[in-house]
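The freezer alarm interrupted the setup, so I double-checked each line after restarting. Inputs confirmed:
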Amino acid sequence: MNEFLQFLGEPIAQRSLWACAIIGFSNGFVSALVLLRRSSLQIGTLSCALLPGIALSILLFGLTLMSILLGAVLAGLMVGLGSLFVSRTSRMDHDTALSVLHTTAFAIGYIILIRLGLQQKVDDWLFGNIMSMGDADLWIAYGIGAVAVLGITAFQRPLLITLFDPRAAKAMGCPTRLIHYGVFALIILVLVSSLQAVGAFLTLGLLVAPAATMYLLTDRAQLMFWGGGLIGGLGSVLAFFLSYPLGWHLGATIIVVLGAVFLLAYIFSPKYGLLRRKN
Amino acid sequence: MVEAHDHICWGGGHRHDKAHCLELRGVCAGYGAGQDALSDISFRAQCGQRVALIGPNGAGKSTLLNVLAGLLTPRSGQVLWNGKPLHDTPHEIAFMPQRSEVNWAFPITVRQLVEMGRYPALGNWKAMRQHDRDIVDKSLKTLNLTHLQHRQIGALSGGQQQRAFLARALAQEAHILLLDEPFTGLDMPGVESLGQLLYSLSDEGRLVIASHHDLATVPSLFDRAVLLNTQLIAVGNAGDVLTAEQICRTFGRNYRFRP
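Predicted 3D structure, all chains:
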């Protein structure tokens, strides 16, 4: 216990704790969008597709934060829009096109990272390493969180009506196409921030589980954003305190905690829980 | 009965020369690079009317609704509302989706759905005022949904779900109601009560336009009918226009119509 308190006194531990809180919160906040769009699996494939973009921009511009961000956004756009293009210009449906493109992209990314001699880094990309986050990373995470909260709160009305009823939204004069692109961009931004924390494989959990939990607890879409943010943030902080004494990998612990919270809501939710329905 | 000050416009139930008028002039529309799904459609409709869009699958009923709702820009021609382009005033149009298109598990209550109708008037940031809340209350009451207002929309019956969307259109204070196959999937009592609702809405001066596929019920539910098959076949009073010849021209020779 003493050892743990000593560890908490160190700057790296405090930085990780803040990173957990802020990344958990902003991912949880945005997770409502993923859930309301009903596009969890697409986002999952997207997170893996970011790998080659990041690898390529490391190859071209070196290992800096901007290059990682740029590469991730470009890869996300190419795979996301590319799969749309392929599905529209062939008899392939969108899911199939996305599956083929993202696995190919992932494989290319893996080859590039190995060729670059970044073997040790590969684990971090796949499963995350919060401890490796620097001050600049933390500031970027803060910035992304602020953009998510402000953007979603300010444009809640057009956002909700577009997600719920896109045709009526457009008939009312909402810029629905712009909103769809904005949502996509926001999801990519938080994906990139969570990539460092939990890695390409596990990021889907952070971007879905908090809102999925809220979905079992409330009928108010507005509550899903703040509730998801709280669940994501508090869950990640709890995982931080669990992972050190247990010696578990932090990123994986975050996902396990969020999964457990979801399971609790699934069983015990007063309105939609398993136990409630059988009564 | 409807009070005079409740009339959304003075056209409803009254004869007057300057009624609010929707006019289509030579509208052609289609998707992508494909052929025209609608070609050279021209007709007029006035507020206070219930207009049925009738035609076989692929005749362009949904396309026409999309054009009217502003979801699809016509390739040529004009859609005018009182002589001005309709889509300069998007708040005048309320669009009701087909029931199968709606995500009924969306976390939203009946009241919140109806409040969405106030969004065009409020914009992105203006707070809901008492005036807006009153309109929402009144819309809920008109459609007999007050006791259900805190239910999640998936927990309603089919007819109640239709009414919830109509209540949103009322809260929007829209002049033109566009409905995509509103009677599909309703049982007989459901059809009757929705029919009565549409009647009272048009009686208040709204223009109701709905795609419809059941020819037998057209004269009882609508007062005008537009027969479509890519081109305009006929427009007229619902009771007069559905002659054997016109139906043949719309649906093809082998179609049998039993009134």
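Quick read of the result. The longest helix of chain B spans residues 188-203.
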